[in-house]
């Protein structure tokens, strides 16, 4: 990781230097074009200006190199800080994963114990109390009465014979 970052930094530095060189060359070309244009009329004046421009350019390049070096050092410091933060985050991540694994293990144990206790209690309750099963009584008569009432919604007395049979069946089942 560090080698890649250093490589990226070096490439960035070289690109910055190349840009500075290109900028310098572009500026030199412009100066030469201006020289050719003005040379006939201002020969001596142009020579002095060119010398002054070269000195200024040299100072600008030196300033740019100093600024580039400062940025490179700053980037190195930030990279070290970032690496330290990354190590710290990895430590925290490992710690929390360990804590999570412990909690999951405890939860599984608690679930197992709780499930066993629940099953034991359910078995005890089942052993103590007999299950009561209920079955519908006179279900066939009940269905016939419902059908009769649906068919004779306005004439409910026509279903009275079935209702009487149903009541006898229910009373017999109660006994």
UniProtKB/TrEMBL annotation:
The lineage of its organism: Eukaryota, Metazoa, Chordata, Craniata, Vertebrata. GO terms for biological process: inner mitochondrial membrane organization. Its main location: mitochondrion. This is MICOS complex subunit MIC19. It is found in: Mitochondrion inner membrane. It is a lipid-anchor. It comes from Pygoscelis adeliae (Adelie penguin). It holds the Pfam family MIC19_MIC25. Keywords: Disulfide bond, Lipoprotein, Membrane, Mitochondrion, Mitochondrion inner membrane, Myristate. GO terms for cellular component: MICOS complex.
């Amino acid at each position: 990781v560090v080698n890649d970052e250093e490589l990226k930094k070096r490439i960035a530095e070289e690109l910055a230097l190349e840009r500075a060189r290109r900028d310098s060359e572009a500026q030199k070309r412009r100066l030469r074009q201006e020289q050719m244009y003005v040379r006939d009329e201002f020969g001596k004046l142009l020579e002095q200006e060119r010398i002054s421009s070269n000195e200024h350019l040299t100072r600008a390049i030196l300033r740019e190199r100093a600024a580039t070096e400062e940025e490179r050092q700053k980037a190195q410091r930030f990279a070290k800080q970032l690496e330290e933060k990354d190590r710290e985050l990895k430590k925290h991540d490992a710690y929390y994963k360990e804590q999570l694994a412990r909690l999951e293990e405890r939860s599984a144990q608690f679930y197992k114990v709780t499930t066993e206790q629940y099953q034991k209690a359910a078995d005890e309750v089942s052993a103590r109390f007999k299950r009561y099963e209920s079955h519908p009584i006179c279900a066939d008569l009940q269905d016939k009465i419902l059908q009769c009432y649906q068919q004779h919604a306005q004439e409910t007395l026509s279903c009275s014979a079935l209702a009487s049979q149903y009541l006898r069946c229910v009373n017999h089942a109660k006994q």
